[in-house]
Amino acid sequence: MHQNQDNKPSSVKVTIARDKLTATVSLLGSQDFVAVDEIYQALDTAGVKFGIEEEAVVRFSVSPSKEPVVVARGVPPVPGCDGYAEVLFEKKKPMFSDAETDIVDFRETSTLISVEAGEKLVEVHPPGLGMEGIAVTGEAVEPPPPKEIKLQAGRGVVLDPDGTRAFAQISGRPWIKAIGQVRIINCEPVYVHNGDVDIKTGNIRFKGDVRILGNVCETMEVHATGGIEVNGLATMARLISGGKIVVHGNVISSRLRAGILFPGAKKLGFMMADIHSELQEMAKVLDLLKSRNKLTSFDPDVFSRVVLKLMDSQFGKIRPMVKSIQAFVKNKKEELPQEIVEAVNSLSCFSGIRPLNEQIFNDVVRGTADALEMIDRNKGEDGAGAIIRSAVSSVIQCAGNVTVTGQGCVNTNITAGGNVYIKGSFKGGEILCEGSVEINELGSSLGAPPVVRVADGSTIKIRKAHEGSVLQVGNRRVTLTMAMESFRARLNKEDQLELY
Questions:
Q1: φ and ψ at residue 272, rounded to 5 degrees
Q2: Any idea what DSSP says for residue 302?
Q3: Domain count of the chain?
Q4: Strand segments (E) across 417-500
Q5: 179 and 88: one domain?
Q6: Is residue 279 assigned to a domain?
Q7: Among 15, 29, 30, which residue's Cα sits nearest to residue 70?
Q8: The domain containing residue 61 runs over which residues?
Q9: Highest mean pLDDT among 87-96, 192-201, 366-375
Q10: Burial 222-232, CB ≥16 within 10 A → b, else e
Q11: Domain assignment present for 78
Q12: Alpha-carbon distance 498 to 437, whole Å?
């Protein structure tokens, strides 16, 4: 029992809640009245100093109860806000309708998300602080600690020095995994599609490599900045790849484009390399100016003026370079990958057509580097290539070698920057290539005769050719007037087409 000031046992029991936010009183004896002073004395003895409710004390005084009655209340603490991870790549959901016509293209309904190298994927926001409460004992009551989210870099991802932002190291498909308060961020360079590409899945557009475990069905498209591999068939489809295309099944009434292949591709590469080199040198000068002026970043207006001044002085080549490459791309826009077109369009900021600040400048430098890498990736035999089993009524454009491993091709046009190897037959259609051609059987007794054309210095090797087949090396052409077996066609020292 509690003691009062006169050392008499108190008839009031005081109980403080575990969280110290409430205090209750209850009657220990059996009486009809308890003095208010006795109640206050009991509260004081128990250490209750804050939040005492006078009305509750008076009510208990005139009507005491053995059941606990709350007579004091503290101020509860205000919890802080938990930290959270803002997943930026999830905001890149594709648009499925034309904004002007509001017409939905049901082939463009894929939810596949891909990102560029250097793109920010996730940003962690710190927890917000809470507010202390006050206990009935007068003590401060700490709010519960808010949760803090931490990032962990997985494959293809790098964190900034303070660990609050995650960036893609490679182009590919980003994904996030939560384990407690840790968020693991990954970026996969290969997207594996388990099944067919059809109207249900929508067209696939991916910045990286794509592997299709099924077929690519009628009217569907697969676009990849890397390679494309199809385990099944490609039927009335369109495959566009920045790297190699491999179709393990047949290609039927489809269009395949592997890499960048168009007249002047080498020239574009030289032009892009020159611009990128100039921009890199300008970036070094800008960094030096920031360092000397002890700046972490430029004011937007100041940055624009500094760049204009530099272009008027030591970087006078940039404007004419930009003008030349934009004119070049304008004439070939339909033949170029969208990434290269966008990189060239972004250069408009140096002609005053578009705004220019430090972030835009850095994006343009990175964009030209990516475009240059895409062009370089398609040079030579180790770049873009196409390997298929067979093709019927199709168009194949390839910056590297084209290899047909099965029965061959019928009524198909092949354009290649490298060599063409056809294990089976080539019946109808046309082959145009920079390298050499090797075919097991050329032409047939039925249908339109095929045409095989190679560059100067290249060779056409045929095991069996039917009458009517057309062979051309450089500017020299011959039409076979009879069937021939096991021969080669090339230009001799007198620049005459020779079959031997």
A1: -65, -40
A2: H
A3: 4
A4: 420-433, 437-442, 451-454, 460-465, 470-473, 476-479, 484-491, 497-499
A5: yes
A6: yes
A7: 15
A8: 12-73
A9: 192-201
A10: bbbbbbbbbeb
A11: no
A12: 15
